[in-house]
Design a protein that fits this description.
- The complex is a heterodimer of chains A (about 500) and B (about 210).
- Chain A contains seven helices and 18 strands.
- Chain A is mostly beta strands.
- Chain A has one domain: Porin, CATH 2.40.160.
- In chain A, strand 8 (about 270-280) and strand 9 form a beta hairpin.
- In chain B, helix 3 runs antiparallel to helix 5 (about 100-110) and helix 8 (about 165-180) packs antiparallel against helix 10.
- The interface between A and B is large, with 41 and 44 residues.
């Protein structure tokens, strides 16, 4: 039984890989013929490597940071439209330890068109520029018959007003950013909105790829509406202060395509801050920074009548990025740590019964926590040669408080083990997840990146073995992920 | 819907009026933007506010001769100069500059003071570089750099200033001259660089970067 399953998987793997290869070839031919080029490239007429470190979009070079902070206004007005598409292939190490492989590992071992985005970006006036992305997910929903349906929604949006007061002795860049994702306005790639950037496919076979492994992030999430003011002094000190509220009314476009029930509803204006020190010497640049956000969100986005249903996130991060950029070498080292604290709403704590029982089914587990605190750490080193061949090694470690409310596996009232989140179910109520990702990529032309990632887990959902109560081990989630990413 | 229409109308109004701000503009296609503004708002991002760049990826422009500077920007604009660093970074930015702006930029950088660069590497190698600069490589028929670039390496008309230039940049350009025809306006350097060994290039580039410190 097991052997035949492995065989059939291999039988599928070959044609799928062939399709992936063909798709990659077609995309690269398309790109070679394409006269259209990315909007920012058209605007400045420069090659991708001018702004993106070693050509690995979206990581910015020192010049790319200045391009962004001056409001995308360098250059001349040009057709402000670009597009990108990602084809991918995911293969989870162990798909046998699952009671529902079809649901747990959708599209496993298959090449798929993962996502596609339309990007609007560029200079509008001498002081105003924008970057806005609409993303299409071909696997957004699945109907009762198992068929997938696509959906588009607003992705990152950053509309800027910037001015620069510069002489031969001092330099001050100031600006405003209207955006929909805290830290999307940031010019460093260790910012929460940017550290994870390889697009993540929706099918569950990609649930363990690096992009879905722990990354620092703000509790309030994206698709909210914010305005931040920033200043960058002598390319040394960067300060940004912002406030975020719900995306609705005039700012509803910032969450366009997101259903009301999935749209974060915040109470009032919620502060975001960022402070960074930057230094450049020779081919080196270093940034050390901190950032944070406090946000009050309603438990139910559809019911904002009761302030007792508000939970509060307090997130505090420290990050650092080092770059060595001297053609043909590009070395980047990144570090980001974030402490995420959440205080649950009084309404949710009023009835603090845990969702599961002890193994006899006779008594509920200990009461749920009033607060939870998680710590996320990410470190990554990458090297790109000739803006063509690259490799990276990443490490992630998430630790946090144990909370019975966060269990998605446990015993029901009859003492039977159950789970609610398939192969990613959590028996311990602890989030601890740790692992490494190895990546190699190739950029045959500047608009195309072909990459392979292997993510290996030593811990998942609080345990290295049997984390779901059904015998699934952390290493069973190790995943091979191939992607072809075209942007033009 | 109404609010979206209003927002669109406001956006259209802003774009059509243009909000031109030539004194602090980063528009490289607006002839009204003064050269000094261009130098500070755009060029400084890589070449530094006074033409002294931080990263050796980008050449120092402070104290560069005006004639050489104008010839290079004309070369980028017309795609005559097509070494990778040239077309990747400079073709686009120079494509719409006016002759007047190019002249103004040349004057701006010629008037800037070069900052002393780090003296890197072994003394002996720097001395070897000095010999090449002052006397050339006699047995290979390589002429002395100083003949055209001046005894202090400050350049002369279309012969560029090389003193205080980043060694990495100098080596890369010597390789461009030696191995390619990507800088036809500098074809004289093809002959000069023809017989330079990689060690020769490193030595002379190290010495030039250190000038006038040595």
């Amino acid at each position: 039984m097991h052997t035949s399953m492995v065989r059939s998987n291999q039988a599928i793997a070959k044609p799928s890989l062939a399709i992936f290869a063909i798709l990659t070839l077609v995309l690269s031919l398309l790109a070679n013929k394409a006269e259209a080029i990315p909007a920012f490239n058209r605007q400045t007429g420069q090659n991708c490597v001018a702004c993106h470190a070693g050509g690995q979009f979206p990581e910015l070079t020192p010049y790319g940071r200045l391009f962004k902070l001056t409001g995308y206004t360098i250059g001349e007005r040009a057709l402000p439209i670009s597009a990108m598409a990602v084809a991918s292939y995911s293969k989870v190490a162990n798909t046998a330890k699952s009671d529902d492989p079809a649901g747990d590992f959708q599209k496993n071992n298959r090449a798929i068109l993962a996502t596609a985005s339309l990007l609007l970006g560029g200079k509008l006036t001498d002081n105003i520029g924008a970057f806005a992305q609409v993303t299409y997910d071909p696997y957004a929903t699945q109907d009762a018959n198992g068929n997938f349906h696509g959906h588009s929604n607003a992705d990152n949006i950053d509309i800027r007003y910037a001015d620069r007061f510069i002489t031969d002795k001092r330099d001050l860049i100031v600006g405003l950013s209207a955006n929909n994702n805290p830290s999307v306005s940031d010019p460093w790639n260790t910012a929460a909105a940017w550290m994870q950037y390889v697009p993540v496919p929706s099918p569950t076979s990609s649930r363990f790829i690096d992009g879905n492994a722990p990354y620092p992030g703000y509790g309030a999430g994206g698709n909210i509406a914010g305005l931040s003011a920033y200043a960058y002094w002598n390319q040394t000190i960067y300060v940004e202060l912002g406030g975020y509220g719900s995306s609705r009314g005039l700012t509803r476009f910032m969450s366009a395509g997101i259903a009301a029930a999935d749209n974060t509803r915040l109470q009032g204006i919620n502060p975001y801050w960022r402070l960074a020190y930057n230094r450049e010497w020779g081919a080196h640049s270093l940034m050390v920074g901190t950032s944070g956000m406090v946000a009050r969100a309603y438990d139910d986005p559809l019911d904002t009548t009761d302030s007792g249903t508000i939970h509060k996130f307090t997130d505090l991060g420290v990050d650092a990025q080092y770059q060595y950029l001297l053609d043909p070498h590009a070395v980047t080292a990144q570090f980001a740590y974030m402490r995420n604290h959440v205080r649950y709403s009084s309404a949710s704590l009023a009835d603090p019964a845990a969702p599961f029982f002890d193994s006899t089914g006779s008594a509920t587990l200990a009461n749920i926590n009033a607060t939870d605190t998680n710590h996320v750490l990410r470190a990554k080193v990458s090297y790109v040669y000739q803006a063509k061949y690259g490799g990276a090694l990443g490490f992630f470690n998430l630790t946090g408080t144990t909370n019975t409310a966060n269990q998605t596996a446990g015993y029901d009232a009859t003492g039977t083990l159950t789970k609610t989140d398939g192969a990613a179910s959590n028996l311990s109520g602890n989030p601890a997840t740790r692992g490494v990702t190895l990546e190699a990529f190739w950029m045959p032309i500047q608009y195309l990146r072909i990459g392979v990632q292997y993510t290996a887990y030593s811990r998942f959902n609080g345990a290295s073995t049997n984390y779901d109560g059904f015998g699934r081990n952390a290493r069973d989630n190790n995943t091979l992920f191939l992607y072809t990413w075209l942007a033009y | 819907m109404k609010s979206a229409t209003l927002a669109l109308a406001a956006m259209a109004a802003i774009v059509s009026v243009g909000c031109a701000n030539p004194e602090r503009s980063r528009d490289v296609a607006n002839p009204a933007v003064p050269a000094t503004t261009m130098a500070l708002q755009v060029c400084s991002n890589c070449h530094g506010m006074t033409g002294n760049s931080v990263s050796p990826n980008f050449p120092n422009l402070a104290g560069q001769t005006e004639a050489y500077f104008v010839a290079q920007l004309n070369g980028f604009r017309s795609h005559g100069r097509r070494d990778p660093a040239g077309y990747e970074y400079m073709w686009g930015l120079s494509r719409s500059l006016t002759d007047e702006q190019i002249k103004g930029l040349a004057a701006y950088y010629a008037a800037q003071s070069p900052v002393a660069q780090a003296i890197e590497g072994d003394r002996g190698r720097l001395e070897a570089g000095k010999v090449i600069f002052v006397s050339g490589v006699a047995d290979k028929g390589v002429p002395a750099c100083s003949t055209c670039h001046g005894p202090e390496g400050k350049g002369n008309a279309t012969f560029p200033r090389v003193a205080g230039q980043h060694a990495d940049y100098l080596i890369k350009q010597l390789l461009v001259f030696q191995r390619t025809d990507e800088r036809p306006e500098g074809s004289i350097m093809k002959t000069v660089a023809h017989d330079l060994t990689p060690q020769n290039m490193q030595d002379v580039a190290g010495y030039l970067q250190a000038m006038p410190g040595l």
